[in-house]
């Protein structure tokens, strides 16, 4: 009875992935089986078969899946590419689960990958382990790909000689969820990818970015952790990107950001935590971004907003113990700051409405000076600089007079 129930569930699954499909056979692969290699199993398979690979090591590369089927590992069998690409998916409705992929070498003439999905829709890559691969998962010209609950760890040393953990190119409606992404060039790289969801991933120790957008619109990333990367996230040349409930932490370096917003517009950044980054957010030509209900804590710079950023709204955020709250390279401001909590605000609230009676100016003279002349950072915390900052707050001469929060909160804002 149990066997029949399992068979029925599998049948319904395969029928849902392709109209009119029928349940196929189970092909077992193991060192003592009649079929000893995945290559042999693929040559015998028919559409919607299940290739069940038993525990063991299989030194195989350049395998091709040319029809809808399931490749299922039992106790994480190892597919060792011995330097070569391991698996190419060239069919819709393919499911890959429970496999350990190893050893795909760096190449300067080919984007070698452990799993490469090529012009194939509705493919799932689930609960696999991928170690020491140049590119781990590479998706190109494919739609509705799901990459979920995989553990991906590389050995990247330099940006030029490393690939990405999950790389998607011209591939819309992707879901990248619950993965651990370590030690690659980028944890996730998206180029020309739209209507996709990146959620609940842990991206750490990557050389360049934990997550990298290029020309990718109408995407959402939420509930991810970006920690100790070269920089946390870069969203570049994109629009309509929703960034919710993420954590950007310990992204330190000479040019490191928690988040880089470069040539981006019409997007939302809400309920995120930025803690102990060199620069929490660097905004360059960012337009109409709604930045609200975020926590900025113990960063070098909380916000670096270049003069070409316009019509952005920064409201209801907590700015706590950052070395510089806001910095800019322009004496003009075209953005709105309102209802934020600033930990160094020294004003008062006579009417007890929770809003300070004195406006807060988040750009200090020193932060403005450092932005335009970085070597002056050596003077930080000096008595002379503190005096200049105090004088500039009373009578703004150099800092942007219109960059002001007229309604600073007296207490931290709860974002529960």
Describe this structure as you would to a colleague.
By secondary structure, the chain is mostly beta strands. It has one domain: Pectate Lyase C-like (3 Solenoid). Helices cover 10% and strands 41% of the residues. The chain contains 4 helices and 37 strands. The strands form 2 sheets. It has a 24-stranded parallel β-sheet that branches. Helix 2 links the parallel strand 1 and strand 2. The protein starts with a helix and ends in a 22-residue tail after the last helix.
N-to-C CA distance:
47 Å
CATH architecture: 3 Solenoid
pLDDT < 50 stretches: 1-22
Average pLDDT across residues? 89
Domain unit count: 1
- Counted by DSSP, the helix tally is 4
CATH topology: Pectate Lyase C-like
Largest sheet: 24 strands, parallel
């Amino acid at each position: 009875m149990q066997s029949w129930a399992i068979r029925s569930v599998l049948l319904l699954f395969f029928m849902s992935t392709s109209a009119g499909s029928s349940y196929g056979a189970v092909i077992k692969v193991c060192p003592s089986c009649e079929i000893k290699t995945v290559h042999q199993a693929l040559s015998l398979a028919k559409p919607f078969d299940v290739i069940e690979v038993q525990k063991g090591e299989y030194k195989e590369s350049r395998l091709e899946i040319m029809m809808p089927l399931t490749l299922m590992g039992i106790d994480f069998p190892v597919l060792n590419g011995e330097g070569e690409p391991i698996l190419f998916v060239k069919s819709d409705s393919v499911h890959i689960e429970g496999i350990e992929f190893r050893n795909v070498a760096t190449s300067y003439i080919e984007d070698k990958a452990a799993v490469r999905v090529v012009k194939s829709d509705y493919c799932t890559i689930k609960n696999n382990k991928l170690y020491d691969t140049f590119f781990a998962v590479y998706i190109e010209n494919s739609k509705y790909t799901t990459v979920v609950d995989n553990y991906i760890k590389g050995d990247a040393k330099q940006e030029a000689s490393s690939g990405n953990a999950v790389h998607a190119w011209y591939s819309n409606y992707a879901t990248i969820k619950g993965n651990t992404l370590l030690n690659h060039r980028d944890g996730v790289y998206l180029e020309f990818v739209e209507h996709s969801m990146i959620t609940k991933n842990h991206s750490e120790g990557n050389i360049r970015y934990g997550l990298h957008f290029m020309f990718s619109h109408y995407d959402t990333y939420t509930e991810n952790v970006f920690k100790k990367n070269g920089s946390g996230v870069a969203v570049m040349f994109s629009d309509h990107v929703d960034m919710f409930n993420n954590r950007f932490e310990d992204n330190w370096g000479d040019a490191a950001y928690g988040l880089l917003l470069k040539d981006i517009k019409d997007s939302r950044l809400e309920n995120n935590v930025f803690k102990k980054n060199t620069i929490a957010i660097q905004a360059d030509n960012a337009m109409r971004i709604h930045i609200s209900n975020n926590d900025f804590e113990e960063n070098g710079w909380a916000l670096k907003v270049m003069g070409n950023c316009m019509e952005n709204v920064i409201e209801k955020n907590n700015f706590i113990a950052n070395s510089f709250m806001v910095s800019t390279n322009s004496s003009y401001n075209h953005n709105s700051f309102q209802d934020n909590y600033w930990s160094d605000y020294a004003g008062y609230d006579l009417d007890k409405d929770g809003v300070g009676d004195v406006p807060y100016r988040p750009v200090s003279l020193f932060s403005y000076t450092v932005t335009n002349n970085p070597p002056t950072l050596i003077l930080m915390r000096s008595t002379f600089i503190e005096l200049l900052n105090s004088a500039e707050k009373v009578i703004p001469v150099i800092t942007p007079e219109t960059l002001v929060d007229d309604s600073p909160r007296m207490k931290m804002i709860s974002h529960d």
